[in-house]
Fold this protein.
Amino acid sequence: MSYAETPAQPDLDQLLADETLLTLPEVAEYLGVPVTRVHDLIGARKLLMYRREGTKFVPRLLLGDDGEMSKFVSGAITVLHDGGYNDEEILAYLFTADDSLPGRPVDALHGHGAREVIRRAQAMAF
């Protein structure tokens, strides 16, 4: 059973309602790259976008600090995609609180829990 098939999957609009969402041009500016590179990162499954009312956004927490990509976030995305999860399922997983971490996987990916989240992503995917 995939993450999307679990009965309690939260709505992405609710999960991301209080998150800082960047448009693709804002992501390009943050990373210091052309917007076409942002499209490449999304296409390569190193970054995820979220659509709200026809506009494409990237949750700020998917990016690293200081204008760089987060290797742990992109690694988790890649592992989950390779395991058959779609973008919405991955976003839901990353932004849903998990008491066993504690917190959300996306927050743990920016701290000491990054390796644990990657390990869990590998276990979920296969």
